[in-house]
Design brief:
Layout (H helix, E strand, L loop, with lengths): L10 H13 L5 H6 L10 H4 L12 H9 L8 H5 L6 H9 L3 H9 L5 H7 L6 H4 L1 H6 L8 H12 L15 E5 L3 H12 L3 E5 L8 H4 L8 H14 L2 E3 L10 H6 L5 E4 L5 E2 L12 E3 H10 L18 E5 L3 H12 L4 E5 L11 H9 L3 E3 L2 E8 L5 E14 L5 E14 L2 E4 L3 E2 L3 H5 L24 E3 L2 H4 L4 H18 L2
Parallel strand pairs: 1-2, 1-4, 2-3, 4-15, 6-13, 7-8, 7-13, 8-9
Antiparallel strand pairs: 5-14, 10-11, 11-12
Helix pairs in contact: 1-4, 4-6, 6-7, 6-11, 7-11, 8-11, 12-14, 12-21, 16-17, 17-18
Bound molecules: flavin-adenine dinucleotide.
Amino acid sequence: MEKGLDQPSNPDQALDALLEKARTGRLSAAERLKIPPQPMPQLDPVARRRSMQEVAVGYTEQQAKWEALRCLQCKRPSCVEGCPVRIQIPQFISCIVEGRYDRALAIIKQTSLLPAVCGRVCPQEVQCQQACVLCKRFGDPFKAVSIGRLERFVADQARSSDEIPKVDRPTGKKVAIVGSGPGGIVAAADTRRAGHEVTIFEAFHMPGGVLVYGIPEFRLPKAIVQQEIDVLVRMGVKIIPNFVVGKTRTIQQLLQEDGFDAVYIGVGAGLPRFMGIEGESLVGVYSANEYLTRANLMKAYMFGDCADTPIAKARNVAVIGGGNVAMDAARMAIRLGAERVYLVYRRTEAEMPARREEVHHAREEGVEFLFLQSPQRIIGDDLYHVRAIECIHYQLGQPDRSGRPRPIPILDARSVLEVDMVIVAIGNVAHPLIRQTTAGLQFNETGNIIVDEHCRTSMARVYAGGDIVLGAATVILAMGQGRIAAASINEDLA
Ligand SMILES: Cc1cc2nc3c(=O)[nH]c(=O)nc-3n(C[C@H](O)[C@H](O)[C@H](O)COP(=O)(O)OP(=O)(O)OC[C@H]3O[C@@H](n4cnc5c(N)ncnc54)[C@H](O)[C@@H]3O)c2cc1C
């Protein structure tokens, strides 16, 4: 810790002195700027290669207070503008300085219902932290105030004493929530709070959406998601698993025969895209969705012990893609015992959509990055098992529609990589089931439901939000839409 102007040499005393100054409004911006960013304690990279334990351990109380003192408490906080749900960031951070963690949590919860989740998985470096004045000053969102880590700290402090939100008197109205991802969870909580009878229909045997089936335990412990689900249940929300809307019942049946007054559709974008190349149906080719679902939701890493779902073991794994899903799959493959895991991406590291933190963690754990190449075919053996991929190589050209430089194949530049598993992580799109079974609901050309700014769809009493509307997006955006949709439902049912 760098010493301030009149700080004692003992860090505890230094912290106490600065806290006192901050509380009495005497801590200057210059003193705040001298405090270095607090690193996140994390598990040892070698030890965690075979462990599902959460990698980021979380701030200690002292670290959280040091970090909170870095916040300049701007009068017009640009960080709030950078937050998709407009959390009052300086306010909750000043509560950390004062040690009022319950109050800090209450401030966050005014706009974000799942702070323990968002503090861990939100891409703060392109949202609130990118807008923070410290990011502008130091030219690096990782030197901004670590808003996400502070949000997580607050949520973890208060989690055990989580109160149940107040539920209004029964309205006699019934709301169906289709899908139990973050959007569905928020929509359920907010409509239940208004006194409606709320039922969540979930296709899987367990609620939580991507938070439980996609994002691995080592990034987001499932106990945290379960705690949020438990809160819903204690509020009186009914959860019906193994119920596929569009098959078990249609949206029209829920509305016309089952007595629901409103339906929120939050089914996500769970249909994996494939490359359409030779060899993609060989044994040993997985979509990242299937691979992660087996590992996370079905606990396949405990197969034969306490899980019934197997997962193929591989020595050399190629993961295709450069986003968060690819990073999760690669890091999972390491944990499932692969000796070498290659991440094959057709552009360079600078263009990878994955969070920088995840790339860093993947590299620390031994994932090898192969840039500017992608498979042209997957080669199998006589038993149709994956044996290798043949890649073509690229150079970068002019920006394409995504704004990123277009990868241009280099003539005759090819290589063969010996692998016995290929995990395809090149994106997910909307599943067509709801579209095929819901006449009158309007979709765009990519198969996403069209909504207005209040998350109302083209069908009366039907609302939608999250990835099924936005395409594969983020947890916080799904939550934001769940909240908007719930407000519309509550207004329309009033
Ligand atoms: C591997 C992975 C990692 C990710 N990492 C991050 C991250 O670090 N940070 C971040 O912000 N975002 C991340 N995302 C994206 C984020 O998880 C999603 O944007 C978010 O979960 C979308 O929420 P949602 O409420 O729309 O639905 P989802 O979370 O997709 O949940 C939809 C639910 O609906 C259910 N369902 C589907 N069809 C039906 C049906 N017909 N009937 C009943 N139920 C149905 C599904 O089983 C699922 O449980 C990641 C996504 C993946 C796949």
